[in-house]
Amino acid sequence: MSIENLTRKKVNFDNPRSFRATLKSHLKETFFPDDPFRQFRKEKFGGRVVKKAVQYFIPIFEWLPNYNLRLFQFDLLAGITIASLAIPQGISYAELANLPPIIGLYSSFVPPLIYAVFGNSKHIAVGPVAACSLLIANTIGEKVSHNDDPTLYLYLVFTATFFAGVFQTLLGLLRLGILVDFLSHPTITGFMGGTATLICLQQLKGIFGLKHFTTKTDVVSVLRSIFQNRDEWRWQSAVVGIIFLTFLQFTRFLRRKRPNLFWVSATAPMVVVAVGCLFSYFAHADKHGIQIVGHLNRGLNPLSIKHINFDSQYIPVTLKVALITGLIALAEGIAIGRSFALMKNEQVDGNKEMIAFGLMNIVGSFTSCYLTTGPFSKTAVNFNAGCRTAMSNIVMSICMMLTLLLLAPLFSYTPLVALSAIIMSAMLGLIDYEEIYHLFKVDKFDFLICMAGFIGVAFISMDYGLMMSVGLAMVRTLLYAARPATCRLGKIQDSYLYRDAEQYPGVTRIPGVLALQLGSPVYFASSNYIRERILRWIQEENDISNGGESIVKHVLLDLSGVISIDTTGIETLIEIHKMLKARSIKLSIINPRLDVMEKMIRSHFVDKVGKQSIFLCIEDAIEASSFSLSTQKE
Amino acid sequence: MSIENLTRKKVNFDNPRSFRATLKSHLKETFFPDDPFRQFRKEKFGGRVVKKAVQYFIPIFEWLPNYNLRLFQFDLLAGITIASLAIPQGISYAELANLPPIIGLYSSFVPPLIYAVFGNSKHIAVGPVAACSLLIANTIGEKVSHNDDPTLYLYLVFTATFFAGVFQTLLGLLRLGILVDFLSHPTITGFMGGTATLICLQQLKGIFGLKHFTTKTDVVSVLRSIFQNRDEWRWQSAVVGIIFLTFLQFTRFLRRKRPNLFWVSATAPMVVVAVGCLFSYFAHADKHGIQIVGHLNRGLNPLSIKHINFDSQYIPVTLKVALITGLIALAEGIAIGRSFALMKNEQVDGNKEMIAFGLMNIVGSFTSCYLTTGPFSKTAVNFNAGCRTAMSNIVMSICMMLTLLLLAPLFSYTPLVALSAIIMSAMLGLIDYEEIYHLFKVDKFDFLICMAGFIGVAFISMDYGLMMSVGLAMVRTLLYAARPATCRLGKIQDSYLYRDAEQYPGVTRIPGVLALQLGSPVYFASSNYIRERILRWIQEENDISNGGESIVKHVLLDLSGVISIDTTGIETLIEIHKMLKARSIKLSIINPRLDVMEKMIRSHFVDKVGKQSIFLCIEDAIEASSFSLSTQKE
């Protein structure tokens, strides 16, 4: 005993940290992993701190003072480019949400201004998105039909937007970005793919010029509706639609081949709208089976703050829409902001983004806008057009203002079929076959999560599809925690390293010793499993050595990888200790980590097992054991 | 490059295993962690295998052939002891479930016989339990009142028992013991404590001899009901009750002080019933405000198979009761069986136990029994009385049969107040203050999970309390997966060991090198966190060394503890690689485990980062890096 202690490295048995210290550290890791207040800690309170704090919370004060004409040239170009995309997209997505088309234009005027002040991504371009538009149409449409009572429907959409904004702001203020983390990438891919498929099929309504259509949103109902109304099909509409769609898809193809021609595909929707308007104006297309958007009034966003509807009979539905769309909008916006920031090696603060999105939707809901976020298509165009700061959003916003004040009536001739073609073309780009195949190749469970979202959205409904996918991702996490893999370690020849014997088949066994590495965490859900599994390892080890000589005499549990343990886990270790003792097998614990060690001390595990059974490395444990074995023999 | 490769230990870059191999291994770990068919694998098919299989599935064939008189002596004594407890408990718990008292006796006759055949615990004594009895009364009582339609109520209880049995059997056959694993120990402690508190307070009804009482089961309603009906209080009843309760508590106290006097407390409830019967028979107690049980017919269990009710209007409620009580019964029974087996260094197969419990409840529901499991109190008595095999259940069953055939009418004089005292005394023993304090001391989150169950059950309702507690335990697991702690490693002096710098403050830093150990798993929920956290580590490291000299030039990510990674996790590692590259920091990956390495190869991560950046240990990575740094300088 005494000799062992001299030679071996010391395990730290210090007293556990206080509860307060542990709690503080846990809360910090959970809610403030990016340590946002680091910059203030060194300073004394004073003018500089106030200035820094203002800059921290309102990012425009950080970049505007250093803004110059050179940067503005870039932003001006980018801003005009995204404005030319924002007009057709705004009208199309409003149409998708069963809202008056002008609402789509309003929604590209106010929210970008707010985002420019509070947002901290340099590349995001703000506007409505297809998935949320459809979700709003479905969910609110179930309660109030937009045909029967368009005003109430519109007001409920504003209310849902308001709630979504409040929810997003709260998430940001409470630093609950962790919720967004649970919308995993496979979930988003599947959800987007399913939604895009659905929207594509729905747009066949516009392409064929149908007047009657199902309000349901599963693939089966939509397809049935298209083929049952064959007598309403208008070939004029279909021809125009297919021409537009072909043109749009060609510009997309062009962008792929020649990335520097991105502006062709960026302005193509605007070209389609303009050509469509001219065509329907001169050819009186509306009299030949091609429907048009209809009257669009001149003028800026009217106030809608007094239309926010708190009637208790509509609260459940608006709240539901707000929670789902708010979360999806955040997940999409933040993920896109982050991925573009990464290309420039910059960072985006998720929690600040949530506040920015939230404020922009609250103010939006007061000024006749519906839910907006940073959609992929627009942001990509903004990035490619060379935007430098959020100023490009302000430029876009000013363009929209001019449009609303001067040009709005011109767009009333836009044929619906052109909008359908624009939406279809955008949606075809959102089905990410390559990513889905990548998931299939690398991780089958991620593929399953993705397909649950895809198929759920396409064949059941958007909210169920989303929930199925998120649920499956959570099940995966829980399953992991219930069955953290253990492995048998062996010694790599000519080294002091112990590695997984399955991964490194050449490792050597030490006779009589079974070294196991436990997975993390050792929680209630896994404790039965761990006990069973350890017994099986011993059994298997004994089976291999048929003879009686090298039967397991010493079990080493390597806890290096175990970050967290709960009381049930510690109970289990105590039980394992007892069980092994009854079979006269020695148990050694290797390298328990800080949190684990603290709980072992508090629960008197260390007293029960003995400090002499806890080691810093496997080598020490084996040495100590062979020493005690040899002394036993003497 | 070439010199490095010669000296360092080789990382295994073999081709990934096939999907089938991985899936098979995962399914095995998830559903067959105990490898139940190991014993059959070596044998050829034939008589021996059939015999072994029969013995495996029907354990009685394993122990009965070797059974002898010496063992029977022990089991006989234990069986008689638990029978004397089963009679008062059966009547009391049936009363608690608002069932005719005779059902409680029936339930201690048939199910123990079935369990003796299929069960594989030697110590469990079968019978009804308080928590499930109350849960049945509440949930079915909400749909059908036992006062208005006692027959329908009774039939629904049989139906719920039938469904519970089917559910339990299915769980066992599908090897879904993993579901039971999610009822953690703190949840059970809290749930039991809350239920026991509630039942204790409810029994004040019996003690005070009240006739009117609330059907609600939260502490507030129960207390209000007791104090609002003060005019119904009967002092005679209260005096008798308090005497009985004092006696019962004294025998429990005696057992604690003198464990070998356990039989005193085991038979005390029977004594109370006997004394109560005599007292109420001779003193005509029912005429002095003390209510009695009333008519109990002679005769064995009537068949109830044709009373199982599949009426669609009752299916939801019976199914709900079945799922909740079935799961609680399993969790309690298996946990208790396991903990007693552990004392004798034996094992209990959870999945086989589920099938045994399930069959016993299915057969029970056909023979006028309600839900049974292996309750703690009875099993402890059985164990202490020295039972050797499941034969003690058969002995108890025969005793019950004799009681039903001969003695049943005698018990009709049992005063309700005696039953209340018996239940109260049993419940007081179920509130495990010491365990709750232990949880508080060792793990505050486990304490929270426990208290959510306790307070939820006591103040809201039993099912909500249970769900709150289980939900919180799941949130804990998900939170863990969202924020797996990383730590900075330092070298322990005079060794090759790298350990957590926070845990071992004496470790040395290597200038320019930042070694981080990642926690497991690296999943979608944690990937943003891990990226942010690594950037913060670099920031902190640079802050410490104010000067420019020892700024981080090389980041090592030790993945030894990471057992599982998903596509989002791998994306994140690729992103980290890009970010570091942009800051001209070298990234090395240390010791990726089998699953992680396979996914890294499949997703071409290895190609992107380069095989020369992946090492088997930290030492190798540092050597390689200093080598490449020194060659750069030359």
TrEMBL record, chains A, B:
It is a multi-pass membrane protein. This is STAS domain-containing protein. Its main location: membrane. It comes from Hevea brasiliensis. The keyword Signal does not apply. PROSITE patterns: STAS (PS50801). InterPro entries: SLC26A/SulP_dom (IPR011547), SLC26A/SulP_fam (IPR001902), STAS_dom (IPR002645), STAS_dom_sf (IPR036513). NCBIfam families: sulP (TIGR00815). The keyword GTP-binding does not apply. Signal peptide: none annotated. The chain crosses the membrane at residues 152-174, 233-254, 261-283, 321-342, 354-373, 393-411, 416-433, 445-466. Keywords: Membrane, Transmembrane, Transmembrane helix. Pfam families: STAS (PF01740), Sulfate_transp (PF00916).
